[in-house]
Specification:
Radius of gyration: 17 Å
Distance between the termini: 44 Å
Strand content: 15-25%
Shape: globular
CATH superfamily: Thiolase/Chalcone synthase
Structural class: alpha+beta
Largest sheet: 4 strands, mixed
Order of helices and strands: HHEHEHHHEE
Number of domains: 1
Strand order of the largest sheet: 1-4-3-2
CATH architecture: 3-Layer(aba) Sandwich
């Protein structure tokens, strides 16, 4: 039952009393595969490949596991600093939504423009194939940059145990 009444009846997953994370606002774990080919621009050109994007920077960080979902905040700040960019300069954001509360917390902390985040759906809608998620987000970001004519995309994920990772790519 996908009604509000049905969602309100779902049991909390992590904190049983007054918990807010349920099966209705968490990503489902599913199967998928993804691949990205990384190579130097000159090699790609020599082989006749047209690069879609280039990796500008990345960041990774760890926070107290009690607030594990906020690991991407520090990772994003590092990636943006390394790129010499601000959130205002990011055109596309692909952010893994492990849980709605986690995604909202990251978006709020980083003051992300909601119109730029997961424009074609995130993990809560599409699923979270754990081993392939980072690659899938990167491919989605590249295609969205090309579709919209944007320049920079931010890809970010929380990782179990309090870690976070982020990357900035530029459309080519």
């Amino acid at each position: 039952d996908a009604s509000l009444d049905g969602m309100a009846k779902l049991k909390a997953v992590f904190i049983k009393e007054n918990g807010t994370v349920t099966a209705g606002n968490a990503s489902g774990i599913n199967d998928a595969a993804a691949a990205v080919v990384l190579m130097e621009k000159a090699t790609a050109e020599k082989k006749g490949f047209k690069p879609m994007a280039r990796l500008v920077s990345y960041g990774h960080a760890g926070v107290d596991p009690k607030i594990m979902g906020l690991g991407p905040v520090s990772a994003v700040r590092r990636a943006l600093e390394r790129a010499g960019l601000t959130m205002d300069q990011i055109d596309v954001v692909e952010s893994n939504e492990a849980f709605a509360a986690q995604a909202l917390g990251v978006n709020k902390e980083l003051k992300m423009d909601a119109a730029k985040v997961n424009a074609n759906g995130g993990a809560i809608a599409l699923g979270h194939p754990i081993g392939a998620t980072g690659c899938i987000l990167t491919v989605k970001a590249m295609y969205e940059l090309h579709r919209t004519g944007g320049r920079y995309a931010l890809i970010t994920m929380c990782i179990g145990g309090g870690q976070g990772i982020a990357a900035v790519i530029e459309r080519m």
